Amino acid sequence: MFEFKQVITEQDKIALELKKKIENHTAQVGVIGLGYVGLPLAVEKGKVGFKVIGFDINPERAAKVDAGINYIGDVKDHELKELAENKMIRGTTDFTLLADCDVIIICVPTPLTTTRDPDVSYMKASAEEIAKHLRPGQLVTLESTTYPGTTEEVILPILEKSGLKVGKDFFLAFSPERVDPGNKRFTTKNTSKVVGGVTPYCLEIAYALYKQTIINVVPVSSPSAAELTKVFENTYRAVNIALVNELMLLCDRMGLDVWEIVEAAATKPFGIHTFYPGPGVGGHCIPIDPFYLTWKAREYDFHTRFIELAGEINVEVSYYVVNKVFRALNTQKKSLKEAKILILGVAYKKDIDDVRESPALIIMERLRQEGAILTYHDPLVPAIEPHGGCTVQMESTDLTAEALAEADCVLIITDHSCIDYDFVVEHAQLIVDTRNATKKVKKNREKIFKI
Questions:
Q1: CATH superfamily name and code, 242-450
Q2: What tens digit of pLDDT does each residue of 351-378 get?
Q3: Of the residues 107, 202, 251, 285, which is catalytic?
Q4: Going by DSSP bridges, is the β-strand pair 170-174/193-197 parallel, antiparallel, or unpaired?
């Protein structure tokens, strides 16, 4: 809590008034970036009574939010529509409206460059826009995943170009997003939120903000501590996925079933957390965040060898999948060149429509380079635009008995729950299963090659 002072300074008044606005929900909230993180967050804020302005450089997205039209799986259609109709949320491309916001939350992409270095251009551009309209009594929080030090080394100097001082005139914090697309159990509201402020007042006000919509808010000592927390979480997953993927490569050499090994190990009630092998890692976090950490570590003359090795293994498995298809076709006396390959699932994980960094795109491009003729079916991804390694535009084909039978090989990359795998195995000539999606299929198992 704020310390009691006999003499309240002007800066104290600014902080206390902003905190009061947040606690009684009269503060206007601005969210920059209306994607997988920003839109669910904006909706949560609107649901508890905050008026929200969503900012995006994409006019189509802004217009959809303004009209209450949903495009994110983790947002309920009726909730967004109701908020828009009641004027509790609006979308815009007009960044001058940042001046009207008491709270501004940055939720923009943080990709890698072609040389695997952090690309903070979207964050910097957002900070530049905020700085143009920054006024006393505003809280700025950064949620975009980034390397430790970004908030204070990159964002803060840009904001202070306005002439205003952090902790006195405006307040700055970092609170990493913890969105897991498609997760029905853990949502924005019931997923613990870590927050670190530049000053004690910054932390106090940011804590008050997130406490309005999130059940458990965890304060830490600094923005850098919060930034490293987020990167560590995803690096932990990347390293453990790499471990089980390396075990998969070994099991292939030894003629053992990696899925049997992992599931048997999972029966131990202590000392193990189960991770499963797969065709590679996807999504915005796991393939990217470890590289943010390794890049920052070099500034301290430290090389994260363990993390970098994990990255190498998770890249290697995509080559392994291509080789597995090659070997499976060999058993049918067929060549990979000009083979008809039907890719089943292109999203980066099951039951979502997100293809960001999906291993499917990389694998498809490598198969194409080997001369394979590709089609794909994904009930949640009707079309693929050229990006993420994929060089051509494609549209999802219908999953018919004819389409399955015509393919020389069906390659399961994403194991969507809505697909009938008994039907797939019945009609396909050959299946390479990278997710153990066909585990419960009883008939025709001689057609199935698992990684």
A1: NAD(P)-binding Rossmann-like Domain (3.40.50.720)
A2: 999 898 899 999 999 999 999 999 999 9
A3: 285
A4: antiparallel
